[in-house]
Specification:
The chain has three helices and 24 strands. By secondary structure, the protein is mostly beta strands. The chain has two domains: about 190 residues, Immunoglobulins (Immunoglobulin-like), CATH 2.60.40.10; about 180 residues, no CATH class. Strands 13, 14, 15, 16, 17, 18, 19, 20, 21, 22, 23 and 24 form a twelve-stranded mixed beta sheet that branches. Strands 1, 2, 4, 6, 7, 9, 10, 11 and 12 form a nine-stranded mixed beta sheet that branches. A hairpin with an 8-residue loop joins β18 and β19.
């Protein structure tokens, strides 16, 4: 069975471009008047989780997750959580009222035609559920569902987080067009709803610089927030996902090499000499990536932004034992840099396993793009050419 990752549809746009502000406005939801139907569903959700048995509500089966025997059909959903789980979520700033949460789950016993969605809200809230479409039906020829990885925005009660209630919705066929919010889960039209025990959300601001340094100076990946920072040129053996938080690790021997000449020629852009442009060679082995994008920043300049380069899309059907070669343009922001002196840059390759990257002119934080992996090279010396 393949374990290729399927990302949530509508993956987060740039937090810096305003989604956080939009979500803050929605944290309270529109549930100012709690009806009897909403209250009854809340009581049932708690009871299903406590008794670990299925119940019907408004014509829909509500079942506990991680309970293979709960349904006569044998359908169930495996998650990395238990009754006392807590989950980390990352914020770009400690004052953010929302944060980004990533986890993986695996459906078992479902038909190829079925799709999935996720809903979440804080425990004890009578506000609406936030709804996310996370999986389309399987492609023809697939035998079973992949491990599915979801990245979503969650609200926080306060700086300490709060308890999160997750519901995984299984549809009889493809997921229909769903609203962004729903008063109850039953009205979304799912065939079965699988409930996860309440999770304590623990917000953190990622220590990106430490992760970069670990990847730059060792042969190990370092995970911070929801991103794995890995050294380039190292072959990683298959590993299971990092539960309950973190990106999935590789399911085949994998490597990303960035062979760089010293110094690396970088030609000033003819239309804007504040930038120089170079070509980066990349070699990949195994199930490393589907979208690659270099990003650079000048070393030794406090607050220097990351400048994204050209995105490269790799073939979706690849021989996992074949080494693939790619090239992409790298852009370096030289504004305020004394180019009469040697210029050294940090170079990383951003990797996403399914979604193209959104367009940015610059990044203060690599987490803004929510990559799956960041491959880190050694510092690169530039030969700046006019």
């Amino acid at each position: 069975m393949s374990t290729r990752v399927r990302r949530a549809h509508g993956r987060l746009p740039s937090l810096a471009l305003g989604l956080l502000a939009w979500m803050v406005g929605c944290v309270g939801g529109s549930g100012t008047g709690s009806s009897g139907l909403i209250g009854a569903e809340g009581i049932l959700v708690a009871r299903v989780i406590e008794t670990q048995t299925c119940e019907e509500f408004e014509g829909v089966d509500y079942c506990p997750a991680d309970a293979p025997d709960a349904l006569p059909s044998g359908q169930f959903i495996s998650t990395p959580f238990d009754d006392d789980s807590s989950v980390g979520c990352f914020q770009l700033e400690a004052s953010d009222a929302v944060c980004v949460f990533v986890f993986s789950f695996e459906p078992s016993g479902f038909d190829q035609t079925q799709g999935f969605a996720l809903a979440e809200r804080l425990v004890g809230s009578d506000g609406p559920w936030d709804v996310f479409t996370i999986s389309e039906p399987l492609e023809e020829g697939d035998e079973d569902f992949d491990l599915i990885t979801v990245s979503i925005v969650i609200p926080l009660e306060d700086e300490s987080g709060g308890e999160l209630q997750l519901a995984l919705l299984a549809f009889e066929e493809a997921v229909p067009d769903l609203p962004e919010e729903s008063r109850t889960l039953a009205e979304l039209g799912a065939e079965t709803i699988f409930l996860v025990p309440p999770l304590a959300a623990l917000p953190e601001v990622p220590d990106e610089e430490s992760a970069l340094e670990t990847a730059r100076t060792s042969t190990q990946c370092a995970t911070t927030g929801v991103v794995a920072f890995c050294p380039s040129g190292v072959t990683f053996e298959p590993a299971l996902p990092q539960a309950p938080l973190g990106p999935p690790m590789f399911d085949s021997p994998a490597r990303l090499d960035v062979p760089i000449p010293t110094p690396l020629p970088c030609t000033r852009a003819p239309d804007d000499p504040r930038f120089c442009i170079s070509v980066v060679d990349m070699e990949t082995l195994g199930d490393v990536a589907f979208y690659l994008q270099p990003a650079s920043r000048v070393r030794g300049v406090p607050g220097a932004p990351w400048t994204p380069g050209e995105e490269v899309e790799t073939p979706f059907e690849i021989d996992l034992e074949e080494v693939l070669e790619f090239q992409a343009q790298m852009v370096v922001d030289l504004e305020g840099v004394d180019t009469t002196q040697p210029v050294e840059i940090d170079l990383v390759i951003l990797v996403d396993t399914l979604d193209p990257f959104l367009e940015f002119e610059s990044l203060s934080d690599l987490h803004e793009t929510i990559p799956t992996y960041v491959f880190v090279t050694a510092p690169v010396l530039l030969d700046i050419e006019d």
